[in-house]
Amino acid sequence: MLNLLKHFNAKKENVFCSYHGISDPRWTPPRYDALAEEGFQKNVFAFRAISLIARGIASIPAVIKNRDDKTEDEFLTKIIKRPNESQTISSFLENLVGDLLISGNAFVHCDRENNLRCLRADRVQIIPNKSRTAAESYAYCVDASKFSIEKRDLLHVKFFNPLNDWYGFGPLQAAARTIDQYNEMAKHNISILQNGGRPSGCLTVKNVESLTDQQRRRMRANIRDIYEGTTNAGRILILEGGFEWKEMGLSPKDLDFNAGKNIAAREIAQAFGVPPILLGIRGDSAFAGYKEARLHLWEDTIIPLAEFIRSEFGNWLSVRFNRPVEMIFDLDATHALISRREDLWNKVSNADFLTTNEKREALGYSPIGKGSK
After folding, report:
1. Which residue from 219, 271, 263, 257 is spatially nearest to 240, judged by alpha carbons?
2. Pairing relationship of beta strands 154-158 and 145-150 according to DSSP bridges
3. Per-residue confidence at 301, pLDDT binned at 50, 70, 90?
4. Does a structural domain hold residue 247?
5. Helix axes 176-194, 257-272, angle to 10 degrees
6. Residue in 100, 261, 257, 264 with CA at minimum distance from that of residue 177
7. Bridge partners for 105 per DSSP
8. How far apart (Å, rounded) are the C-alpha atoms in residues 44 and 297?
């Protein structure tokens, strides 16, 4: 804020003017706690986008299978289905994906009892090896305590980060400045509302040289007391002794905040790969309907991210438990993809050039008798 006093002698009047100068913007710092507060907790569109993706992946049934014979590994599947005493696989995966989308990093710790827990990304420190080419171990820092974690006991899932060798870069970080813009517009609107819907103004005073600094401060305080706040909305301002009040600034309509907020909301949705129509953004017509947009979300965002997590998880479990396994997400059991399965069934069933067993194989079923066609 920059408060300036201007004096000029046009028409033998002096103007006592207080206004806000333009300064450098204050962006949210790129820390996990700050991003989570400003983005996930204070921005409805970022919250909704993260929730849609995380809960979508959490809704996919998952099992652990042997990589060689494709049989289910009951021991590891049991661990996955009940990662720890306070979480099921759904809440566990939602936690993991949420951390990944906010910070670009997700850390899963396996303790001696084979309990799996997601550790807060800002509390995990990577300890590199001597050549600084890979992680040697990890440190978990909470409050004033610091605990060492062996490399084999911790899974680090991260997104690509071109400027950091150790930590990932998340969608929320890419959308951080747009989120700041949206949140500031929301703060401006509530400030205007609390100020009776009135912008700031300019007080014109004759012979301003006669006012002492104390009188100027008292004048500002009096104007605030009788003019600002929702309780004073519509109150008539009466000035004496050659004082004149002039409105200044642009109205929210002049600033076109509604259009600006819509643009910001679309950019936030774009950073997460979520169709704007699914976030309730008005005026979106990129999709024929909600159903098409939902399918687009799954095919372009949720399924690729699920595959990414599946491969990372499978490789880590193989090393941690010394057995060749892989994590399998059963997409056929996902309700959101029913329309896609129906299209596949129709295409396969109408393919006259395929035999019955070829059709069954295309749909994931085992073949029947030799002579079947």
Report:
1. 219
2. unpaired
3. very high
4. no
5. 150
6. 264
7. 158
8. 18
Q: What would the pLDDT profile of 246-269 be if each residue is shown by its tens digit?
A: 665 555 555 556 677 888 889 999
The string over 48-83, giving b where at least 16 C-beta atoms fall within 10 Å of a residue's C-beta and e elsewhere, is: bbbbbbbbbbbebebbbbeeeeeeebeebbebbeeb
Structure confidence at residue 307 (pLDDT): 95
In a domain, 126, yes or no: yes
According to DSSP, the β-strands at 145-150 and 135-142 are antiparallel
Whole-number mean pLDDT of the chain? 80
Q: Would you state the pLDDT for residue 229?
A: 55
Question: What is the rounded distance in angstroms from the CA atom of residue 275 to the CA atom of residue 16?
Answer: 50
**Range of lowest pLDDT (125-129, 185-189, 338-342):** 338-342
Task: Write out the residue range of the structural domain in which residue 108 sits.
Answer: 32-37+70-177
Q: Which residue has the tokens 């169709």?
A: 275
- Per-residue pLDDT tens for 305-355? 999 999 999 999 999 999 999 999 988 777 777 766 666 667 777 777 778
241 found inside a domain: no
Domain count of the chain?
2
Q: Where are the alpha helices (DSSP H) in the chain?
A: 32-35, 44-58, 74-81, 89-103, 171-174, 176-194, 213-227, 252-255, 257-272, 290-297, 303-320, 338-349, 356-362
Last residue of a domain, one of 177, 197, 216: 177
pLDDT tops 60 at residue 233: no
Listed residues 177, 209, 233: the one ending a domain:
177
Both structure tokens of 198: 């009135």
Which one-letter DSSP state was computed for residue 369? -
Q: pLDDT tens-digit profile of 44-94?
A: 999 999 999 999 999 999 999 999 888 999 999 999 999 999 999 999 999
Q: CA 30, CA 4: separation in Å to the nearest integer?
A: 33
Rounded Cα gap, residues 44 and 206, in angstroms: 49
* Residue 265 resides in a domain: no
